[in-house]
Amino acid sequence: MSCPHQYLPRRQALAAATGLVTGAFLPLTGASPTAAAPAQGSALAAAAEYTNPVIWQDFADIDVIRVGDTFYASASTMHYSPGAPVLRSYDLVNWEIAGHSVPVLDFGAKYDLNGARGYVRGIWASSLAYRPSNRTFYWLGQIDFARTYVYTATAVEGPWSRLTTISTPYYDAGLLVDSDDTLYVAYGNTTISVAQLSPDGRTQVRTQQVFTTPSSVGTLEGARFYKINGQYYIFLTRPANGQYILKSSSGPFGPYTMRQVLLDLRGPIPGGGVPHQGGLVQTQSGAWYYMAFVDAYPGGRMPALAPVTWTSDGWPVVQLVNGAWGTAYPSPAVPVPPRPVTPLIGVDTFDGTTLKPRWEWNHNPDNTGWSVDNGLTLRTATVTNDLYWARNTLTHRIQGPTSTATVQLDHSAMRDGDRAGLALLRDSSAWIGLKRDGGATRVVMVNGLTMDGSWNTTGTGTEVASAPVSGGRIWLRASADIRPGTARPGTFSYSTDGTTFTRLGPTFSMGNDWRFFMGYRYALFNHATQALGGAVRVTRFELSTP
Fold first, then answer.
1. How far is Cα 222 from Cα 127, in angstroms, rounded to an integer?
2. How many Cβ atoms from other residues are within 10 Å of residue 340's Cβ?
């Protein structure tokens, strides 16, 4: 995945096609692409049908693997912290968030909103792999075009810790654990290289250019690296409308030959882009699937799944429905899941003392300014009139195609000058919330929070509606339509009893420009404009669909 300030061909392709992704998996090395070995253990789950997108939330640049009977996927998170969520599934269709590979974005002060900002930086297309020899998960990704970081864990829930920093920035990397346990990395934009790591994974032993993209193809990036039936494959995306694959019969350093996998393929989301920048994964029974993402702004990039077959000479073919990526396919035949996964929507009462992995902060939080104890307390951590500079803004992905977030808020400990509420957050934002001034509290709707193309604030917001409130408790609600293809409406309302809601303010138009990369999110915030010391308490958050 490339930054808007990098690689003009990608910008032109994205503007033309409005579709972008990054994804992959690590199959069982040495597995035959045509073999259909019987699954061991429990009976196969009854085949039904699944619909695309399999996840209607913003999870881009997916790298997907299988370890035993469990599938895992990693995704980009840019400036959100913790970064690189790890999703878990038992059937490739139903997914939960299990943890994050990058616990904190400790890559410079800009990720702390400390004198600088990291919007549209941070965790881009990266790689997730599992190494059977030491039963360890590996996450690998480059930061700021400067260097590559490797994190490891023995369970995806964590704890994850940094294994090493490598001076070569492996752009859009794919990590391969070879059948002899050697670690290789495929990476690059247009010029594709392969690096070999030391046995402990801490240093680079060798790197070599292995392929130059023909000018007739243009840009290739988003590498995923596989060994299948003794052949080496590098899966690459042409942003934002194509997918290609390189194959070598002579080892990981090539030479490689190229074949097109898809180009300008109609996707499964009306108004959305072409599925691409994804990866391949093999089920226990030997079936293969391609998990890509679909550009679907204003919501973001949504994962879609399609079955794959292989030609007799070892090239993958995506199975189409009426000449397009199907909106529905038969469900993968897999063992019966050991349990239901945790839904990506529903109620969170902030039970316990830690945040659930569905939550990510806008940049790193100030950990002295929040706590969870059967409720979420947000103390003011920044004095600013600009939400984009406010620390401890907590975000949640929006569920598509339409959804509603409702938050119950205790505002009795707010202080004069404080601003707290629920936002639809992106480079153009709006919010409903509370303003405490002169000892009085009002519920307000604010829009006109904007950034320019360099992610500098150009508008701190304008109050467009308000109403007086009394007491110390309020319910705030935001509803979002994130169907792609045009600007979509977001609306705000409030309640003083949790039952009857009153609409506040005009409809907010959510933009669908791709250049911020991440889609809109629901965001909980509390910041000061005068002095620190105030707080709010969130006792309930509910994400629901019609």
1. 10
2. 9
pLDDT, tens only, 287-301: 999 999 999 999 999
Q: Which of 269, 240, 294 is nearest to 4 (CA)?
A: 240
- 8 Å CB contact between 295 and 15: no
Q: Is residue 177 pLDDT above 90, yes or no?
A: yes
Give one word for 90, left, alpha or beta, with left for phi > 0 and alpha for psi -120 to 50: alpha
| Phi, psi of 336, deg, nearest 5 | -60, 125
In DSSP notation, 369-430 reads: GEEESSSEEEE---B-S-GGG-S--EEEEPPSSEEEEEEEEE-TT--TTEEEEEEEESSEEE
DSSP state for residue 367 in the 8-state scheme: G
Three-class SS of residue 11? helix
Structure tokens at 194: 């392969």
- State in Å, rounded, how far the first CA of the chain is from the last one: 33
* Buried-state track 359-383, b at ≥16 Cβ within 10 A, e below 16: bbbbbbbbeebbbbeeebbbbbbbe
CA dist 309 and 89 (Å) reads 22
Question: Which tokens is 379 given?
Answer: 């103390």
Give the DSSP letter string of 73-116: EE---BTEESEEEEEEESSSSSEEEEEEEESS--S-GGGGTSSS
Pairwise CA distance, residues 471 & 323, whole Å? 59
Q: What is the pLDDT of residue 453?
A: 96
pLDDT at 47: 56
Q: What is the pLDDT of residue 32?
A: 33
Indicate the SS3 state at residue 187: strand
For the segment 107-133, the average pLDDT, to the nearest whole number, is 97
- Structure confidence at residue 31 (pLDDT): 34
- The reported pLDDT for the residue numbered 485 is 86
Omega within 30 of 0 (cis) for the link into 332: no
Residue 539 CB neighbours (<10 A): 14
pLDDT in tens, 480-510: 999 998 889 999 999 999 999 999 999 999 9
* Longest distance between any two alpha carbons in the chain, whole Å: 76
**200 Cα distance to chain centroid:** 28
DSSP 44: B
Q: Which tokens is 114 given?
A: 């400390």
| Cα dist from 170 to 88, 108, 124, 128, 207, whole Å | 25, 19, 11, 14, 10
Q: How confident is the model at residue 10 (pLDDT cuts 50, 70, 90)?
A: very low
Q: Tell me phi and psi for residue 3, to 5 degrees.
A: -70, 150
- Token pair 């669909």 is at which residue? 545
Strand 316-318: give its sheet, edge to edge. 276-282, 288-295, 301-310, 316-318
- Report phi then psi at 9, rounded to 5: -55, -35
**Residue 523 CB-half CA count within 13 A:** 25
For the stretch 140-159, pLDDT in tens is: 999 999 999 999 999 999 99
Contact status, residue 508 vs residue 491, Cβ threshold 8 Å: yes
